[in-house]
From TrEMBL:
Its EC number is 2.7.10.2. InterPro entries: AAA_dom (IPR025669), Bact_polysacc_biosynth/exp (IPR050445), P-loop_NTPase (IPR027417), Wzc-like_C (IPR005702). Pfam families: AAA_31. It catalyses: L-tyrosyl-[protein] + ATP = O-phospho-L-tyrosyl-[protein] + ADP + H(+). This is non-specific protein-tyrosine kinase. The lineage of its organism: Bacteria, Bacillati, Bacillota, Bacilli, Bacillales. It is an enzyme of class 2 (transferase).
Length: 233
């Protein structure tokens, strides 16, 4: 019974609301995030985008997946990459295998074509983490990773990376320096202010282009007119 409930909770937490309920209020917020990202770099085309958080459990992976979906719904060719090679989740989110992926690609065990998966969402492609390596930070900082990012930027309209939390390991800090923009996800009501500040400082020290902060699980009052408008869809 406990295991069944746990699986149900995991399925709910990874719900891709922008796909299953595109007219909902939350989906509209993700489209607003997409618009803000599009206008964030008027002088430069944004091709690679990183999602990270200060600590685990703040919703960065679910946020990255939903943002990827709304970009795909806009008609862009989108690639979502699970760059969290410590606790990957995208294979659960999209209900696919994680037998091969980014780690296998960077170690030249498989080709890009072999590790890229077609999702059930039009225009959206996925590269899962693959086998968890003993040296994630070294792979992220390798020349193979830099070459891969350049190659993917030519193949797709936008590439979205889901990276580990900033205060746990160095992976996200390293990768943020290689991407055109970074989104910091904060869980409303649970993320400590000090942790959020430290996460931002680590991105600044990495010379990351911080596009903004995404506040996750923010609860609107039901009296709010926008809540009532979208909540009836």
């Amino acid at each position: 019974m406990f295991r069944k409930r746990k699986r149900q909770m995991l399925a709910t937490s990874r719900k891709l609301v922008t796909s299953v309920n595109p007219k909902s209020f939350i989906s509209e917020q993700f489209r607003t995030i997409r618009t803000n990202i599009n206008f964030s770099t008027p002088d430069k085309e944004l091709k690679t985008l990183l999602f990270t958080s200060s600590s685990p459990g703040e919703g960065k992976s679910t946020s990255a997946a939903n943002v990827a979906i709304v970009f795909a719904q806009e008609g862009k060719k989108v690639l979502l990459v699970d760059a969290d090679m410590r606790k990957p989740t995208m294979h659960f989110t999209f209900k696919t295998s994680n037998s091969i992926g980014l780690s296998n690609l960077l170690t030249k065990q498989f080709s890009l074509e072999e590790v890229t998966r077609i999702t059930n969402i039009e225009n959206l492609y996925l590269i899962t983490c693959g086998q968890i390596p003993p040296n994630p930070a070294e792979l992220i900082s390798s020349s193979s990773m830099e070459a891969l990012i350049e190659e993917l930027a030519l193949m797709y309209d936008i590439v979205i990376f889901d990276a580990p939390p900033l205060l746990s390991v160095a992976d996200a800090q390293i990768l943020s320096n290689k991407c055109d923009g970074t989104i910091l996800v904060i869980n409303s009501g649970t993320t400590e202010k000090e942790s959020a500040i430290k996460a931002k400082e680590s991105l600044i020290s990495a010379k990351a282009n911080i596009l903004g902060i995404l506040m996750n699980n923010f609860v609107l009052e039901k009296e709010n007119s926008y809540y009532q408008y979208y909540g009836t869809e």
